[in-house]
Write a structure and sequence with these properties.
The complex is a heterotrimer. Chain A is built from 9 helices and 13 strands. By secondary structure, chain A is an alpha+beta fold. Chain A has 3 domains: 63 residues, no CATH class; 111 residues, Cupredoxins -  blue copper proteins (Immunoglobulin-like, Sandwich); 85 residues, Cupredoxins -  blue copper proteins (Immunoglobulin-like, Sandwich). In chain A, the strands form 4 sheets. Chain A has a 6-stranded mixed beta sheet with strand order 1-9-6-2-3-4. In chain A, α2 runs antiparallel to α3, α5 crosses α9 and α7 packs across α9. Chain B has 2 domains: 29 residues, no CATH class; 518 residues, Cytochrome C Oxidase, Chain A, CATH 1.20.210. Chain B is an all-alpha fold. The two termini of chain B are 36 Å apart. In chain B, α13 packs antiparallel against α14. Chain C contains 6 helices and no strands. Chain C is mainly alpha-helical. Chain C is 75% helix and 0% strand. Chain C has a single domain, classed as Up-down Bundle (Four Helix Bundle (Hemerythrin (Met), subunit A)). Classes of the chains: A alpha+beta, B mainly alpha, C mainly alpha. Chains in contact: A-B, B-C. The interface between A and B is large, with 94 and 97 residues. The complex binds heme-A (2 copies), dinuclear copper ion (CUA) and copper (II) ion.
């Protein structure tokens, strides 16, 4: 489908979001813990499976059976005790390790000097606000490397879940509640993730990208984002059309109209690599396609087809394409 | 009391002279525990085929990235209906059916304690199932926002509320499940009353077959858990119809409260489904190992322990909602504790086989498959219960792999074992060993191809409940393999159906006791007469038929 | 059921009716617990509208009626077992009367809350949880009343006699249960909640 084809063509190569290739804390800490847990369970598996297979092979009735019943063994308290005590010990150890890890990872308050980001889940896109910088963007999170980002997670409608396996575990975004999550990226580059709690029709297309930059690069990006929307020459007609139609009821373009809150902020639309939470690559053709009928790219999306004429769509798309 | 009008054997094929309409009438009005048991199992199997077809459609859609076979809404409906069907309309009726059929026979009684309540329970269950499926036809609702429910089998608030689920589809989900729940509750009341008050002479609690013990624990869990779901669903209905605000987040309601309620039901529910599987295994493994069950009293104690602990672990489904550290630690640790009694059971089964003479008949094959697969499933459960790791794995395909391993690798395999094991008792006819083997191997291979690979998708970061995924995430090949396995599973199921048909087409008589077994149901004819036993038996040990067969070395000298 | 089928276990007085009723009560208790939990959970969380302490009055009369009806039903059942038909009928009639007064009191309370205080089920979280909890309890009272009235009519007609005493006693358990639930509801809603 469009989304898939589009993404493959994106300039930034997508890495499989496997949590065993962490590029940040706490994903690294979780991996350490997980490895321990997996090793323990693997050990149990080998012992018990070995026992089972041995028993099956060794005690399979032979074809030359004498027809007599084998000796009846009714039980053994020693054995029962043994296979109670050993698991108890295992559970005690695992329990302590787990408790320690939970305490180490879960944080309620922002550490000193962290970057604060507010993430609001919507059906089916992410609103990303940088309160320290005073701007809002969508669907693509930018973070500086080696600095803790402290995320506040909220939801506008139903429950969503914020999940970037290579950065951290998932945490839900729940209406009426405020959850928090911290991430300390250790490498630059892009990682992908997506909404992990079923949130309705387009749960599958609530994708998320995170770009981790060198600090100065991040500051540059943030300054760009702080700017009001560009008034590029040659798209006046498109801009006027955009401001006149219902678009502005749902979308904010800082400097043009700031009432729309229902849809993503479009002020710097062109700074994003994808459209509609990763449903399509952000290029001119897809933009036109999207404005013509969002359902074509993302069936069920909460944006209506605006029934503009082909010319008008071209103008609006031209305007949006100037918002870098 | 026994209102079944057929004297002697209520033959399944319909006795000579019985008209078709007459036999339908008999089945519809029956209050005989055996017929109701069969009705439960039969309708459960029919729903299994439907749920399986739904699963196959989902796998077809997911076989390739960006596939456009299904619309997103269609897919969302499919997993909702699939999960709901498999849990409430396949698992629940089949376990109730076996309980119904076997408990009176095993404790030497002539019927259940409340035969009419029993019939009522079955028809409520079936009606509930039909209500759920009516949604496909009847719930167009507001501007066609209807047809089948699409809120997932746990219908999280507020997605299931009026604001986000328009139309009536979700109401069909609520009502269907609630009504079939009344059936389960009445079945549980019946099983408890039967076990406590209807045992034959000498059948003390300490001599109950493990099957009956485990069903007793299950029944208590049902009484504890299902009313919780009913209550939560009533609240949801009040929200949807009366404008109440239980789970209405816009009026201060709490979305997480629904999760607490649902999983306070939901976690006991998974043990309600699994313990009957343990029950079948506990009857079948000894017989085909030719050895008495190892550590009877420890098995009983472990079952009760699982039942007790199962009540306190529900929020391990909620590690990602942002509970405090204390709660996360509690639920992680207590969940791991469940592994201890479960391990005791596993070890006792292996010890039962150890030193025996294991006969690889079809029921035993399925039980052995169950032992290995349940081990994996349990350990993947332990991985999920480690909260920090759960933050990565929750709501991913790893979870899907975990619960299909328990539900199929554990429960469904034991159900198949039980079907092959008790089929001769129920019909008086043997199922083909050859087709049974084909069934086992095809299903075994298909199962592992489909679900063992799903662990990988989860570890590679694929969330569950997505109708499509981009091709560049490295998930495509694994999904394709997963989907391919379904073909084998289907072939396996077809072998089973063929075996059943063949058993009637080319009957091979089974006789009362084809497996040389030890519990009371094998002492009466196959199929058992309407009144079960000519004279009510008297027992002196846990294996009354062993005592008969080995008068020089009876069990009671060892217990 | 023939005597041979129902071989009583040694030393057990639990017959299937008693076990069945005990199970029903167990299941119903879990059902009610959930509504109690929801009530307590949402205490003080309403965003608007009347709060419990603004509008609730301690339902003294209703409580006295309901609790004393537990005594009259015991009296009636004992009388029935002893074959004193008129006493049994009177006991049941009194019970039904007291239960009906309880329902009447609830009806008055609700109409006051709805029409004077403007508290309905969709007003706020308090309304939602209050009407559900109290309403489900009242529904159970009504169910109990229907069973007891049926038996009462049977006694009056001479159809229900001493030999049915045990079954009537089992039904009376249900009535006691409904009473016990009221104590919990009372504590939750009118003591803890205000
Ligand atoms: C038959 C059903 C069944 C059974 C028996 C189990 C058994 C267990 N389950 Fe599972 N589970 C489900 C059905 C079941 N589960 C379903 C349906 C879901 C998903 C619901 C949904 O979201 O849709 C789920 C989800 C689920 C989750 C939540 C995942 C998530 O969504 O984030 C967790 C987390 O803790 C979990 C854990 C466990 C554990 C620890 C056990 C334990 O009982 C396992 C115990 C067994 C063993 C451990 C193996 C044998 C023991 C030994 C060999 C002894 C030595 C071992 C040790 C000392 C560790 N399960
Ligand atoms: C007992 C429970 C049970 C069983 C047996 C199964 C069986 C199967 N399940 Fe299911 N599953 C669940 C319980 C179960 N499942 C639950 C609870 C969920 C969660 C739902 C949710 O998220 O809300 C789930 C979700 C679920 C998903 C995840 C969907 C998602 O998250 O997007 C998938 C995906 O592959 C899946 C696949 C399968 C497959 C391939 C089978 C196969 O094993 C099925 C094999 C059977 C057949 C193929 C049928 C045989 C049919 C024939 C032989 C044809 C004859 C036909 C006629 C005569 C009409 N299941
Ligand atoms: Cu948002 Cu799923
Ligand atoms: Cu669970």
């Amino acid at each position: 489908m469009l989304g898939a084809a589009g993404l493959a063509a994106a300039e930034t190569a997508v890495r499989t979001p496997a949590f065993f290739e962490p590029v940040a804390e706490p994903a690294g800490m979780i991996l350490d813990y997980g490895s321990l847990l997996v090793a323990t369970c693997l050990g149990i598996f080998i012992v018990v499976m070995g026992l089972l297979i041995f028993t099956i092979i060794r005690f399979r009735a032979s074809s030359a059976d004498d027809g007599l019943e084998p000796p009846q063994v009714y039980g053994s308290d020693q054995l029962e005790l043994a296979w109670t005590i050993v698991p108890v010990l295992l559970v005690v150890v695992l329990g302590l390790v787990t408790a320690g890890r939970i305490v180490a990872i879960q944080r309620d308050t922002a550490p000193e000097g962290s970057l604060s980001v507010r993430v609001v889940g919507h059906q089916w896109w992410w609103e990303l606000e940088y309160p320290g910088y005073g701007f809002t963007t969508a669907n693509e999170l930018h973070l500086p490397v080696d600095r803790t980002a402290f995320l506040e997670l909220e939801s506008q409608d139903v429950i969503h879940s914020f999940w970037l396996p290579q950065l951290s575990g998932k945490t839900d975004l729940i209406p009426n509640r405020r959850n928090v999550l911290w991430i300390e990226p250790k490498e630059t580059g892009m990682v992908v993730g997506q909404c992990a709690e079923y949130c309705g029709t387009q749960h599958a297309h609530m994708l998320l990208r995170v770009f981790v930059h060198e600090p100065d690069e991040f500051e540059r990006w943030a300054q760009e984002q702080q700017r009001q929307a560009r008034t590029a020459p040659g798209v006046e007609e498109g801009r006027a059309l955009f401001a006149r139609t219902a678009c502005v009821n749902c979308h904010t373009v800082r400097g043009v109209s700031e009432i729309g809150r229902f849809g993503p902020d479009l002020t710097h639309l062109m700074s994003r690599t994808t459209l509609a939470a990763g449903a399509a690559t952000n290029d001119r053709a897809n933009l036109v396609d999207w404005i013509t009928d969002p359902n074509h790219i993302k069936p069920g999306a909460r944006m209506p087809a605006m029934k503009l004429s082909e010319r008008e769509i071209g103008l609006v798309a031209g305007y949006l394409a100037s918002l870098d | 009391m026994s209102a079944s009008s057929t004297p002697g054997n209520p033959s399944l094929t319909g006795g000579a002279g019985a008209t078709f309409a007459g036999s339908i009438h008999e089945w519809v009005t029956t209050v005989d525990h055996k017929r109701l048991g069969l009705l439960y199992i039969g309708s459960g199997l029919l729903f299994f085929l439907i749920g399986g077809v739904e699963a196959a459609l989902m796998r077809a859609q997911l076989a390739m990235p960006g596939n456009e076979l299904l619309e997103p809404q269609e897919f969302n409906r499919l997993f909702t209906m699939h999960g709901t069907t498999m849990v409430f309309l396949v698992g629940m009726p089949i376990i109730t059916g076996f309980g119904n059929y076997l408990i009176p026979l095993m404790i030497g009684a002539r019927d259940m304690a409340f035969p009419r309540l029993n019939a009522w329970g079955f028809w409520m269950f079936l009606f509930g199932g039909l209500v759920l499926y009516m949604s496909y036809f009847a719930s167009m609702g507001l501007y066609g926002a209807g047809t089948a429910p699409d809120v997932g089998w746990f219908a999280y608030a507020p997605l299931s509320g009026r604001a986000f689920s328009r139309g009536n589809a979700t109401d069909y989900w609520v009502l269907g499940i609630m009504i079939s729940g009344f059936g389960s509750i009445s079945g549980a009341v019946n099983m408890i009353a039967t076990t406590i008050t209807m045992r034959c002479r000498g059948m003390t609690m300490g001599r109950l077959p493990l099957f009956v013990w485990m069903m007793l624990v299950v029944s208590f869990l049902i009484l504890l858990a299902l009313p919780v779901l009913t209550a939560a669903q009533v609240m949801l209905l009040f929200d949807r119809f009366l404008g109440a605000h239980f789970f209405d987040t816009q009026a201060g309601g709490d979305a997480v409260l629904w999760q607490h309620f649902f999983w306070f039901f939901g976690h006991p529910e998974v043990y309600i489904l699994m313990i009957p599987g343990f029950a079948y295994a506990s009857e079948i493994i000894p017989v085909f190992s030719r050895k008495v069950i190892f550590g009877y009293s420890f098995m009983v104690a472990a079952t009760i322990a699982i039942g007790l602990v199962a009540v306190g672990v529900w929020a391990h489904h909620m590690f990602t909602v942002g509970m405090g550290r204390g709660l996360n630690i509690w639920f992680a640790v207590i969940t791991m504790v469940v592994g201890i009694p479960t391990g005791i059971k596993l070890f006792n089964w292996i010890a039962t086989m150890y030193g025996g003479k294991i006969q690889m008949k079809t029921p035993m094959l399925f039980c052995i498959g169950f032992l290995g697969q349940f081990l994996v499933a349990g350990l993947s459960g332990i991985l999920l219960s480690g909260a920090p790791l759960n933050w990565q794995l929750s709501d991913s395909y790893f979870v899907v792999a975990h619960f299909h391993f328990v539900l199929i690798g554990g429960l469904l395999f034991t159900i198949f074992a039980a079907l092959y094991y008790w089929f001769p008792k129920v019909t008086g006819l043997m199922l083909s060993e050859k087709l049974g083997r084909w069934h086992f191997w095809l299903f075994f291979v298909g199962f592992h191809v489909t679900f063992t690979t799903m662990h990988v998708q989860g570890i590679l970061g694929m969330p569950r409940r997505i109708y499509t995924y981009p091709g560049d995430r490295g998930w495509a090949i694994w999904n394709f393999i997963s989907s391919a396995g379904v073909v084998f599973q289907m072939a396996g199921v077809l072998c089973f159906l063929a075996a059943v048909v063949l058993a009637f087409k080319r009957p091979r008589r089974a006789g009362p006791d084809p497996w040389n077994a030890w519990t009371l149901e094998w002492s009466t004819s196959s199929p058992p007469p309407a009144y079960n036993f000519l004279t009510l038996p008297e027992v002196r040990s846990r294996r009354p038929l062993w005592d008969l067969k080995h008068p020089h070395d009876p069990d009671w000298e060892h217990e | 059921m023939t005597a041979a089928q129902a071989l009583p276990m040694e030393g057990s007085s639990w017959n299937r009716g008693r076990v069945g009723m005990a199970c029903l009560i167990f299941g119903e208790s879990t059902f009610f617990s959930i509504f109690v939990v929801a009530y307590l959970f949402y205490l003080g969380k309403s965003l608007s509208g009347p709060q419990p302490q603004d509008v609730l009055e301690f339902p003294l009369v209703a409580t006295v009626c309901l609790l004393s009806s537990s005594l009259t039903v015991v009296w009636g059942v004992r009388a029935l077992a002893a074959g004193r038909r008129w006493q049994a009928g009177l006991g049941l009639a009194l019970t039904v009367g007291l239960g009906a007064s309880f329902i009447g009191a609830t009806a008055l309370e609700w109409s006051r809350l709805i029409f004077q205080q403007g508290l309905a089920i969709d007003t706020n979280l308090f309304g939602t949880t209050f009407y559900s909890l109290v309403g489900f309890h009242a529904a159970h009272v009504i169910l109990g009343l229907m069973m007891l009235s049926g038996i009462g009519v049977g006694v009056a007609a001479g159809k229900v006699t001493a030999q049915h005493a045990e079954r009537v006693e089992i039904v009376s358990w249900y009535w006691h249960f409904v009473d016990a639930v009221w104590l919990v509801v009372l504590t939750t809603v009118y003591v803890v909640g205000v």
